[in-house]
Each structure stands twice: as structure tokens, then as C-alpha cells.
Amino acid sequence: MFEKPEDLEKIDNYFFKSPAETAPVNVTEEEYDDYASDDGSEGGGWSFKRLGTPLFKKTRIKLTNYYREREYKRQQELQKKEEALRKKLEMEEAGEEPVVEEKPKEEIKSDENSLELKGEVKEHVSSKEVQLDADNIDFDNETMEMIATGSPVLYFPPQKTTVKADKMIYNHASNKLRAFGHVDVNRNGQHVKGDYLQINMNEENGLMDNISTKAEFLTVTARTSEMDGDKIILYDGKMVSENSYILNLRTRMIGGNNYDKMIIAEKDRSSINDIGVTAVHIDAKDVIVNAKKDHDTITFKDAKINYNDASLFTIPSFTVHTNKKHEFFEANYPEFGSRTKLGMYAGPGFVFDTPLQGGSTLKAIPIINSHKNKIGFGGMLKYQSPTNYTDVGYGTANNAFFLQGRQMFDDNLYLQYGSNSYMDEWFLGHRLAKYNAELIYRNQTIIPSTIGKGLDLRYRQRAGIGYMHNADYNTMREHISANNMGTMRARYMGEVSQTLYKYEDREKLRKFNLALVMQGSAAVYGTGDTQFVGRVGPRVHTQLKYWMQDITFYASAYQDGTPMRRYDAYRYGHGCLYIREALRLNKYITVGWSGNINLTNDSPNGKLFQENMFILAIGPDDFKINLGYDWERRQTYVSFLIAMDTKGSTLNYERMIIKNPDKLSAKDEDEVELKVFDDGQKVAEKPKKMMYAEVVNIEDPNREEL
Prior knowledge:
By secondary structure, the chain is mainly β. 7% of the residues lie in helices and 51% in strands. It has a domain at 5-50 and 247-278 and 339-642. The protein has a 20-stranded antiparallel β-sheet that branches. The protein has a 16-stranded mixed β-sheet that branches. It has a two-stranded antiparallel ribbon with strand order 1-2. β24 (388-395) and β25 form a beta hairpin.
């Protein structure tokens, strides 16, 4: 979420990606410095951060917990034996008789209506037990009604729900409860208020008039509501965002410029409010909220989108899908863009929930594609989860197939795979592979203030092993002959960056950072061939007013014996210059450019520019449209950045249906964390905490608890 004005200008340092590819989770400004690459690329997967827990990490933590707990219990048993022996010796020295512990008493028989507890305590269990507290309670024998007045409070222990009202009437014959005047239903701290409440205990349904509830930044009101089993229906209502809340939505980022580093004076910031737009208003006929086991979905039907008094457009039906933790979302909006070999494409999107990986989505997109004046048809699939994204597609215009994806196994371990897609090679750039599957481990270490206060040393490394196949498509127009080569490759890459000087004056909008950077790469192939790259040079970041730039010069030495030159040949030469420029022309327009210049004329294609990208950002800081073009890959990109304040925005609905409200945002995924035991020994760096119990296989969540 954007939490401060400086965040509104953020654009990830993200390589030009296909619009069909899932965007990685955004990194903070500090992480940007850690993870960004000089070539404008994604940085070896550094920015791919998901909130979900990968399967390998879960397994690793559970195994660690098992052995920690076993060792803890062993130490506790040893301590008990040592303590018992010590007491025995003390009593023998004092001439006292040892105390013999009594054996526990025999098991007490119990009937089917009792629950047995340790310590010989029995507690009666009733599935329909309720508690009523009121100043006055009267019973009418003729109507079989119990009437409670004087601040009546009704408590349902199984549901942990409290009902307050001015008056309550319970009919014993019909098993119905009615509450009148200032009704307040409190469940787990969530209040729903109304004028009248009726609950049918037999059919488990209810009715409530003029309801009002508040959840986080939203207030929900409705003329009337019905509760029927696992469904709540609200009629003629409104949702209002009364408090300030930043809505953060962004599509696929285009990269090459690090706008998030730019210092912007408060007086020069811009907002969508500055151009007369104050709030979003939506009028919908139906809103359907469906809480499933692993997903939450929201569907709007016949929704009119309005800014102020102007009607923008009408959506017949729009459904948003997300997992329980709301780590990502997908929706049935159309897709359009371009990819290498596939060409331009466009088509509608249809989203489906899948039970895999803790709530994932699959989007199917039938497309029309165009390549070199040929028109064709095809389709694309987009799969995403908290730890995976996979895109696959095919178009007949050029008989083109592509696959691209990444699966996180642990915090620093992941698998990248693809076919006819640009694969991430960290500071060596994104390279087109016919086939690629590579297991990668990467991490970083920061040694603060190595040569002075604030002058840190950072070491990043990446090790990978996998299978690669040479590209059969010459996208870079290089003087390299084609070969149908595929082989294994093991590669280690490292970078050392030492900050030499830092200066910043936020009032005068000035900034200067100087660092010395050393990078190295060593690869060995299944054919016995090798590739070695080493380079060193200064890196400078500057800002003067609203002109910002990053410049890095590398002097390189390399031995390039790769058998797959179209795929991973070293392209930047013995001397190269990385440049990133950003110029904020005014509050609403920022231009940027990113390139790599080969200064020694020894690239495979003989060209001066090896990377050449342009970005135009239009709009206020909280509602930007970004346009980009990659000259080397000949692709156009469009992305959106929305960070609007929702205060004053409304959603009016004729009917809102909430299915399975108890499951909304429920976390069904196993939560695992390292256990820490207080046994007097340091077994973990985390603060000490008590052991927790893991509850599994609960058959009835509404069963009464003691």
C-alpha cells in the first residue's frame, strides 16, 4: 500500500514484460536499491516477492519445528529426572522417607451427555445453549412467548455472538426470536445495527430492517436484509468510504527507470483531486460476494461508473477473483498487447478458481493475433497463485507458441521456465530461449558502514542449474549462425557494491551517490564449454531539481565460449555504459529513457545500443498512464498506476448477496512459523514465544467450546 506521498511516484524497476505476464509484487524503496539491475531488467528475480508460504518452506519449517520440539522435550525430561534425583539425595541426607507419588485414579464413567476433563471435572454440553440477561422477563402462557425488557442481552456461546435490543420476544412454540429497537448484533467485535431483527431457530434464517455496519474504512447500510442459512441478502443499500484510504491498483509495470528514487517537493505533487475529480461512484443492480474455501469473488452486474456527476461507462458484468489473503487479484477484463513471435493480440478474459496452491486463478483468453500483416486466432492461459505465475499461449498468424512462468520453492529458491520467451539472466539481460528450465538460488548480504557511516557494502549472488535450448528466432538481428543446440548449464553470478560517497538535500532537490561495483559470472555447459565474464566500474546516481539519472561504466574481460550464442552470448562488450534518465516536465508528465551503449564496437550485432527503451508517464501522481516502447525487441507496452484516495466514494446497490459470510477472508492455508522454546539455550534468533497448538480436522466450527 502507498503510505506516504513519496510512494505515489513509484514505478518498479521492471524490465519490459508482456502484458500477459503477472506483475511481481512491488518492492519498497530500500529494496529497490538492493534488487535493481543496471540493464533495467527485473534483477534476477529479486522483485518477485509473494506473501504466500512456498511448499518447500512450509516443509522446512515443520521439520525444523519437529526436531526443535523433540530436543526441547528431551531436555525437559532430563531436567525432571535431575530434579527428582536431587530431591531424593537431599531427603536421604536429612534422614527423611522419600515421598511416593499417588497414581492417578481410575477413569470415571460418564454418560453421553457429559464431557470428561482432566482433574475429574464434568461439564454439561448443550448444542443449543444460550444466555439471556435482562432487567425484566415475563412469560405469557397463552401465546407461549417470553418477553424480555430492560436492556436485554442475548448471548450465543457457540457463535460467540451477542444481541442487544430495547425489547426481545421469544416464542417457544414457533422457536422464533424477535428483537425491537436499537438492535446491535456483535460477532467477534463486528457490529451490525438495525431497527428490527427476526430469527427462525428451526430454519436457521432471519430478517433485519435498516441495517448499518462498519468494516475498516467502509460503512454499509441497507433498507432491509434476509439471512437464510449460509447466505445474507441486503436490499436497497449503500457502501460509503468515509475515511481516507489509498486504493492501490497497478497493471504490469514497464521498466528501465527508477522513478521511486526521485525527491519531489510537497508543493509540486499532484493528485486526481487537482483536476476536479473527487470520488468514484458506482451504481449496481446486483453485487454478489461469494466466499469459497480458497477464494473470495465479487461480481458486479449492470454497474454504472461515475466520476462526480459524469457517467463514464456501464459494465454488464464484472467479476474479481482473489485468494483468502488477498495477495493478488484477477478479473474478467479483456487482454491486449504484443509478444515476440506472437505479434499483437487482443481478446476477452474468463477467470476460473482452482483449488491449487492455497487459492489460485486460471484466466482463459481467446485471442485474435496479427503478425507481419497476417491475421490469426488462438488462445492464452494465465495461472497465478501466491507462489507461482504461468502464462501459455498460441496464435495461428505465425504458428507461434509461448510459455513463461516461475515457481517459488523457498524465500530464495525458485524455478523459472519458458519456451519462446525472454528469460531472466540478471545483469546479463533478458534473453530469448526456445526452451528453458532453471532452478535458481539467490540471496544478498549487507555489511553496514564498512568504510564510513552510511557507506554500506552489499554482496548479491545467484546460482542456477538447468536446461537451455538455443533460440531459433534472431530478435536482436545479430551476426550469429543458427544451431539447434540444447544442453545443461550451471552458472554462478555475484556482485559486490561498495558505496563511496552519499549526499542528499531534500529541500533543494539534490542528490548524489557514488559506488564501486564489481560483477562476475562463470558458467559451464553440458558440452564442456565455458563462459566467464568479469567487469568493474563506478555507478553514479544524481538528481538536480527534477532531472534524475543513473550512469554506470563497466570495463569488462570475458571468455565467451557458450555453445548457444543466440541465447546467452555476452552482448555488452569490453566497455559499456548503462544510462537511465528521468525528467519530470510538470506535475502530470514524466519522460524516461534507458539504454546500454557498447563503447568498444564488439557486440554480436555490431550495434551501438544493446538496450534502448522509452517511457512516457501521463497523469497526476495517483493516477498515471504509462506508455513504453522497446526498440530492440520492437514491442509496445501500456500500464496503469492508480493510488486514489477512496474517501467519499460510494457503491449503491439494489441487492447485495453475500454467500458463506463466515468464510470471508478466512485463512484456510496452514500458517507455519519457527517455534522457539525457552529452555535456557539459544535455539533461534527470534524473540521467545510460547509453543502453540495446531488444531486440525474440526468437523463443526459452531460446536460449543469450554
